[in-house]
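Input record, target 12 of the design panel.
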């Protein structure tokens, strides 16, 4: 994809490490090159460098020749979650306020539901709270107390801290978390505890341990969530430091001297040295969402479903009215609720590597995955359990000889054997029927995830466009798009999350809890304390300026924006609303802030539950600081004739469940299709790193930007929607 303003483009490498493949987008001289390599879970830095080498090969350079030309590398990874799932973190000690040692063990009342799938929650009899990351014997309370206003009501007993610190170290602590009551209002005691730890165990000592302060990680109310966020950061810090440190060292050794940024789940990116581990969770899907929002704006789409089908998971996110500012209401990492702001995405265990199995005669597909090693049976690397990719090979959709650009020939016979022995024979059906059933279950699982995400947020699928990406997204989009009328495929679909990372801005987010009365109850008078409001924002802005300067970024180039968590009196639902001003200096400013909150609250819940007589409370300040980066534009290309025959490679047999028959199916080369070309189903379109299927009754055409669009040949009849008064056709 060439850009008209190539001279303005920075040279960048964007990498997304998934459970099966590591994806790369290389931007060099205005051209974007994509590549994929198998993920190396034993050492992620190997797959990382393999991907860079694959990209370098495509531009005729060695890695040592390419890296000095690169200005910036952005990295999204699942390493944090993988380490957490495997419980590979260090032994952690926790120092908290005396009398509150059991807070994180008690958790929230419904803690056992955190991170559980709906089907698991229903089986209440077998549910238990998760095993804690910190043993009870590794939690000590220290003598101190700060009240809710930030006033010290009990001075810190420093000798008590030293005694209990030594006890933690004697019991094997390799990291210390300090989380004291109301420390986000006044962190003086937490900071002094850290000083004491450094006095006792200095940086140059062999026994040096990392120290994580809850007030530094999250300056927000919520004792359990704030503490667990700090615990997770401490738990994951060392393993992430080792993995990413090894990658950084290899990059420097091979000539790289630019910036190294991590993708954050808040929708931005920041230097690896400024990134807590909890911010990296779900970074890949968020990059895909941000890329979807950017390209949707260029294409004129206001409502988009971003559907990423990888090797291990299916990730769904929404762009609504050109806005991605939808945050997870109760963010959960693995089994623990945290207090970080995360973009709202939904993940289910469905991907090309999802394993098909029988449970009491019922076919299950996922959430278990074959991953990259041993991978699907057809990889011929030792896998024995059939997967979705095996079914796609048996159905004739994936060409075993050209998979992964021909660099990974597939064994179709072994895939057939696995499906026959593990699925078909126990069910008493033919092998091809079993393969079609695997595909159907996979597609329905993903379609159900889209329906839940769209309908439960109050929208209609018919109002959206589907962006199908990930290695298996274009292959299965016809099956999972459901009621969404149109699906779009990008040339970079197999590496779209890395593509999304390439257009993400450098962004820092700062949060500060501060409960204030904004509107007086009954009188509906705006009584917000302007001095306190402005001072809170200014303090956050000053911290932002200092951090930008430390990263070599100019604060004058940054865009500051403010969001506020507010609620009506008598209600429990907080709503985060964008503030139109950074400071309240007049009655008009205060009114503008309230009006923005009411508008967003009404859209999210209903105008009928707006409760001005109950007053309005401000709970939390969120400051976003964004340094824009260069972004590509989609170039318009000349349209050609509809006839796609110039791109046809030949034909092959493929089984289409729609007709329940084998069909001699035309096969096209994606890279040879031109804008204006129209392909009628059934058809298969092969790309270097993915395969597009066009079932009977569907059509696939290339639009003016070179993107592929899948639609039904005969559009379905419009559905009737039921409003409060009457059913109307749309």
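The sequence produced for target 12 reads:
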């Amino acid at each position: 994809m060439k850009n008209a303003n190539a001279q303005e483009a920075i040279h960048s490498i964007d990498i997304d490490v998934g459970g099966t493949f590591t994806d790369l987008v290389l931007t060099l001289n205005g051209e974007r090159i994509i590549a994929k390599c198998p993920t190396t879970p034993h050492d992620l830095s190997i797959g990382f460098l393999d991907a860079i080498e694959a990209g370098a090969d495509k531009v005729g350079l060695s890695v040592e020749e390419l890296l000095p030309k690169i200005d910036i590398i952005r990295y999204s990874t699942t390493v944090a979650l993988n380490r957490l799932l495997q419980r590979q973190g260090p032994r952690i000690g926790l120092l908290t306020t005396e009398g509150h040692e059991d807070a994180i063990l008690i958790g929230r009342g419904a803690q056992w539901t955190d991170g559980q799938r709906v089907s698991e929650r229903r089986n209440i009899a077998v549910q238990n709270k998760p095993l804690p990351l910190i043993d009870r014997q590794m939690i000590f309370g220290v003598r101190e107390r700060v009240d809710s206003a930030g006033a010290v009501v009990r001075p810190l007993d420093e000798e008590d801290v030293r005694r209990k610190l030594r006890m933690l170290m004697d019991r094997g602590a390799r990291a210390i978390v300090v989380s004291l009551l109301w420390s986000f209002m006044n962190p003086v005691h937490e900071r002094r505890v850290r000083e004491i730890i450094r006095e006792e165990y200095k940086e140059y000592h062999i026994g040096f341990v990392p120290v994580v302060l809850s007030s530094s990680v999250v300056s927000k109310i919520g004792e359990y969530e704030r503490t667990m966020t700090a615990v997770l950061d401490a738990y994951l810090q060392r393993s992430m430091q080792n993995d990413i440190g090894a990658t950084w060292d290899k990059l420097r050794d091979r000539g790289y001297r630019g910036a190294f940024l991590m993708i954050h789940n808040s929708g931005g990116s920041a230097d690896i040295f400024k990134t807590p581990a909890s911010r990296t969770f779900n970074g890949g899907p968020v990059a895909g969402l941000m890329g979807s929002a950017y390209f949707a704006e260029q294409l004129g789409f206001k409502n988009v479903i971003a559907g990423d089908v990888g090797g291990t998971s299916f990730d769904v996110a929404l762009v609504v009215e050109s806005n991605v500012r939808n945050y997870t209401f109760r963010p959960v990492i693995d089994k623990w609720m945290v207090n970080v702001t995360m973009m709202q995405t939904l993940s289910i265990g469905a991907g090309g590597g999802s394993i098909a199995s029988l449970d009491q005669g019922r076919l299950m597909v996922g959430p278990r995955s074959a991953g990259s090693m041993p991978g699907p049976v057809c990889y011929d690397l030792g896998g024995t359990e059939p997967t979705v990719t095996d079914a796609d090979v048996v159905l004739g959709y994936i060409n075993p000889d050209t998979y992964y650009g021909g660099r990974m020939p597939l064994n179709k016979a072994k895939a057939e054997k696995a499906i026959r022995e593990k699925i078909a024979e126990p069910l008493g059906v033919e092998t091809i029927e079993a393969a079609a059933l695997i595909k159907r279950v996979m597609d329905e699982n993903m379609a159900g995830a889209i329906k839940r995400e769209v309908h439960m947020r109050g929208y209609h699928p018919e109002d959206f466009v589907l962006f199908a990406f990930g290695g298996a997204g274009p292959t299965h989009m016809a099956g999972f798009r459901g009621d969404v009328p149109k699906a779009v495929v990008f040339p970079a679909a197999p590496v779209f999350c890395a593509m999304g990372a390439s257009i993400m801005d450098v962004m820092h987010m700062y949060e500060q809890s501060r409960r204030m009365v904004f509107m007086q109850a009954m009188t509906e008078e705006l009584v917000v304390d302007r001095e306190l409001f402005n001072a809170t924002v200014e303090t956050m802005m000053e911290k932002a300026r200092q951090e930008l300067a430390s990263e070599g970024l100019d604060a004058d180039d940054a865009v500051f924006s403010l969001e506020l968590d507010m609620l009506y009196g008598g209600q429990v639902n907080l709503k985060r609303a964008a503030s139109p001003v950074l400071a309240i200096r007049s009655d008009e400013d205060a009114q503008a802030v309230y009006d923005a909150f009411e508008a967003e609250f009404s859209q999210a819940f209903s105008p009928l539950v707006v409760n001005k007589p109950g007053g309005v409370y401000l709970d939390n300040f969120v400051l976003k600081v964004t340094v824009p980066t260069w972004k590509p534009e989609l170039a318009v290309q000349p349209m050609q004739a509809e006839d796609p025959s110039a791109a046809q490679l030949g034909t092959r047999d493929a089984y289409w469940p729609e007709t329940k028959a084998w069909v001699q199916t035309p096969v096209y080369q994606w890279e040879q299709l031109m804008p204006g070309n129209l392909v009628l189903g059934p058809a298969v379109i092969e790309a270097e790193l993915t395969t597009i299927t066009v079932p009977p009754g569907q059509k696939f055409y290339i639009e003016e930007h070179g993107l592929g669009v899948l639609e039904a040949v005969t559009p379905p009849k419009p559905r009737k929607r039921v409003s409060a008064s009457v059913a109307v056709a749309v």
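The CA atoms of residues 170 and 578 lie 49 Å apart.
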